[in-house]
Amino acid sequence: MGSDGDAADGRMRRVTGEKVFASDFRPVDMAAMGWPTDCRHALLLRSRHVDRIFTGVDFARLPVELQPDVVVTAADLPQPPYSNRVSADNVQALLPAGEKADYLGQPVAIVVYGDFVRFRRAAQELREGAAPVTYGPATGVLPPTEEQLITQDLEAWTQRSFTGTPRQAHYLLDATVPNGYSHWNRGRVTYDATQSTFVRNGQPDTDAEHLFSAIEGDMAQPGALGAVTTTFTQQTDPAFLEPEAGLAWLDHSSGTLHLVLGTQSPHGDVPDIQTLLGRAAHPSVRSVRLWSKDCGGGFGGRDKSPFPYYLALAAVFAPGPVRLAYDRREQFQGGLKRHASGVRSWLRADPDGRIRAMRSFIVLHGGVEANLNGPVLGLAALHATGPYRVPQASVHAIVVERAIPAVGSMRGFGIPQVAFNLETALDRFAVRGLGMDPLDFRLANVVHSATDGPTDATDADTDLAGTPLRFHVGAAAVCAAARDHTLWQQRDEARDRVAGRGDGTLYGVGFACCMEAYGTSQDSVYTAVQVAGDGQVAVWGQSVEMGQGSRAALEQAAHDVLGVPAVARLGVVGPFERFAQRLKERGLHDQVKISLSHGASSASKTAFFHVHVVREACRALLRLRLLPAARTLLNEPTLSDADLLTAWHDGAVRLPGRPAVPLTALAHELVRTGSQTCVMAHGYFCNGWSQATFQVDGMPHEASVDALALVRSPDDDPVPLTPVGPLKAPVARGPGGDVVPRSLYAAAGHLIGVEIVPGHGAIRVVDAVTFLDAGDPLLPAALEGQVAGGLAMGISHTLHEELPPETGAGPYVNFDRYRLARYADITGIRRETILVPLPTAGVLGTGSPSLRHKGIGEATMTTVAPAVANAVAHALGHGDDRCWPSRTPIRLADLPLPDNGRS
To answer: Could you give the C-alpha distances from 339 to 273, 333, 444, in angstroms and in order?
Structure first.
């Protein structure tokens, strides 16, 4: 699939239906790959109860003509070879008869129909009625609501009490003494409830317990200047454009299971499916091949989704190609959701406005399917103190598993939940506790990184883990730009002006800031760049196109180096798995702890990680193959690389007084001589980029990647180049011995103006200024699309979205019941985007590769909710603490409106 062109053209193709998504494919579209052209259709039957025993599926209740041709239940998945699991936590893929469901909406059977007409009729019956799925008697006891549960869980957790075996994340920081307690200095700590103490390396950690108690005691001092803030955020649905859909076919002649679908984690889906099927023990499946296609939105909802499991199982039992496609109601019922949260924080400051300490307890509600509960929790905890200098901190987070629909890694990855608490707490404390301008308060406490002016790596601030901020973070610039903006400077006058209209409308302006980690701490990236005999450049990448502009970004990266248009092929699996295997066989990467794993695709990884490795591959192709070909064609064997690189412009060698030698001629020469025309590369980032030196034809090549291979095609079996000397791994661990949780951050902020119209029962955003620490925009139009989309999603989460309580219990929810921000809610907003400048040394500073782009796909929405809440408080005059909303979605009924909302 080629490029979408520019961002505006891409959006138009989606709106008009011209854009091809994964759900558009049928077996006939794969005929050139050897697929049969007939198509069967699959449907999942799900449990609608968690308090009743599932007794079976009775298809006799359906008319004979609507009974399925194939039925797959847990009884059809004997172990071995099958592992009836969709996670490492033993959550069953298909619920066996005689058991209660682990969670609402857990699949109990897969049914397959051989023709579309019968499928459509049967699907209507099965989706609208629960008759074929049978249960035992109800218990008669109503379970507590989700709101009641999370309130109870938060109250218990603030006393370090919990039920079940939740995942935990803890950060204790003492920056008041040299080499004080931190994750960086001491390593990871956890809490042992049986011993009622913190534990590190299997032993009680008395230092951690002492610091915890000291901060707790400081917060409780009589007359202490501080604030306690409790907030709750709701579970939400990604609501992406295209519900999950895919095709699969088991080719019995070769034993290859083929899948075509849109996914954010193709490299993870393949081994997960192999585990489900029993790997080599399966009698029919010898290999799994996944064809990743563009999907209509992701937002984390397709990252480690259980959908591919069911598509694979349907294909194994169907007699030919099969299609599984959720409709919107099924997507609401069975798709991944964002974690609901409860957060309680304590803030302590000195009279001069300097933060002294913070304490925070965080509860996330996860489903029982593991998905990415742990990583989401860890990132939420790490961001609990935001972009601020906190000398002492005590942050404790758990994710509790409840029998709710599956929860995953939705956009923001836990950070929006804690940002809502932190930023409303700071705003309220600045105004009511200190009498300060909220932005002056932030600027007095905002962190500075090593690349900010005169600060060097030895005296840079740290994040909550104690990791020195070696790399650029523009949080101070974001706060300064917001403070100086007219919308902030004239906020009181604007409020008075609207109030003077006399129609009961209230107006207010609020701000919120964040520094959001991008990447996964240990980011392993593969790519390949190939030039064809006609000079056409192709980029092969791991990333997936979800509408975030990944394809266009990689094409632009190749164009920047090679000077000609490129076409990107995304979601590549097989070639990079072979490359990884060859590297593992050599063992060099394992010796220096460079990961060769394959990560998922997200909107915050392309600009920094994938673009860098693509550029390194292009540099290697240019130096190691194209420039030697230029010397041959020019008959100038002694021309230096420096001379040729200086002469390389717009895809050609242009030496003064000589005819240009275009890329087409160079590629033709490589093909004529049988030389390689493709470079494969692997790079690894963990607190810095891996590096290596290679030697080809006597020529040394230093690269900020750790593996290269010269091949004629990415489909070839690659032979990695042997490095000169050992691979250079980044310094990934602190003195405490643990890998740094994160080291790359992008700052962002929002100034939001809202109108509260009690007579209409409405809160609406009317002004929005987005401040971004994005670096230099690689694709300005795509960046602006991220800004607009992040704002719209943030407004939707803050003011509108709320899942009905019966979500998961059946196909009852669609957009008629799940309110999103609509056209009228967005188009009238007076919008502005301000990019804060990046220093000359770039993101990583001097002595590192020059990189000038950051991942900001998630940061564009994180601060919308707290900025809206702070704007609401300003509109209400900051009269008391209730002016700051403590729960999303924000409801007028929860606000202390004048005259109870009647004007």
So the answer is: 25, 15, 32
Maximal CA-CA distance, the chain: 91
Q: Is the pLDDT of residue 770 over 80?
A: yes
Q: How far apart are CA 401 and CA 444, in angstroms?
A: 39
- Please give the structure tokens belonging to residue 198: 């913190």
Among 382, 390, 378, 19, smallest CA distance to 174 is for: 390
The whole-angstrom separation of Cα 135 and Cα 95 is 12
CA-CA distance, 324 to 676, in Å (whole number)? 41
Q: Which residue has the tokens 């250079």?
A: 728
Distance CA 608, CA 94 (A): 40
Print the SS3 string covering 6-70: CHHHHHHHHHHCCCCCHHHCCHHHHHHHCCCCCCEEEEEEECCCCCCEEEEECHHHCCHHHCCCE
Q: Which helix (H) or strand (E) holds 272?
A: helix 266-277
With beta carbons less than 8 A apart as the criterion, state whether 407 and 377 touch: no
pLDDT digits (tens, 9 = 90+) for 547-571: 888 999 999 999 999 999 999 999 9
When pLDDT is cut at 50, 70 and 90, the band that residue 454 belongs to is very low
pLDDT value of position 8 = 56
Q: How many residues can be counted in the chain?
A: 903
8 Å CB contact between 185 and 467: no
CB 892 within 8 A of CB 758: yes
Question: Which residue is it, tokens 């093909």?
Answer: 671
Quick check: 367 and 402 in contact, CB under 8 A? yes
Closest by CA position to 614, among listed 711, 527, 542, 547: 527
Contact between residue 85 and residue 69 where contact means Cβ atoms under 8 Å apart: no
- Residue 900: pLDDT band (50, 70, 90) is very low
Two structure tokens written together for 857: 């796909």
* CA distance linking residue 760 with residue 307, whole number of Å: 41
Radius of gyration of the chain (CA): 28
Closest CA to 371 of 330, 429, 426, 413: 413
pTM of the entire predicted model = 0.95
Whether the Cβ atoms of residue 386 and residue 442 lie closer than 8 Å to each other: no
**Range of lowest pLDDT (21-30, 85-94, 118-127, 558-567):** 85-94
User: Rounded to an integer, what distance in angstroms lies between the CA atom of residue 10 and that of residue 1?
Assistant: 13
Q: Pick from 703, 750, 757: which is nearest to 725 by CA?
A: 703
**Residue linked to tokens 């035992």:** 136
CA–CA dist 439, 418 (Å, integer): 19
Q: For 726-747, give one letter per residue: b (16+ CB within 10 A) or e.
A: ebbbbebebebebebbbbbbbb
Coil, helix or strand for 135? strand
Residue 824 burial (10 A CB sphere; 0-12, 13-18, 19+): exposed
The two tokens of residue 538 are 């192709």
- Scored b (16 or more CB within 10 A) or e, 645-657 reads eebbeebbbebee
CB-based burial, 803-822: b 16+ in 10 Å, e otherwise: beeebbbbbebeeeebebbe
Please tell me the distance from the alpha carbon of residue 359 to that of residue 226, in angstroms, as a whole number: 11
3-state secondary structure of 336: coil
Of the candidates 33, 41, 22, the residue with the CA atom closest to the CA atom of residue 574: 33
DSSP-derived 3-state class of residue 217: helix
Confirm if 303 and 265 have CB atoms less than 8 A apart: yes
Neighbours of 217 (CB within 10 A): 9
Give Cα separations from 575 to 265, 528, 571, 709 (angstroms). 16, 9, 11, 12
Task: Retrieve residue 242's tokens.
Answer: 């295209």
> What does DSSP assign to residue 433?
I
Tell me the three state secondary structure of residue 290: strand
Tell me: pLDDT of 901 over 50: no
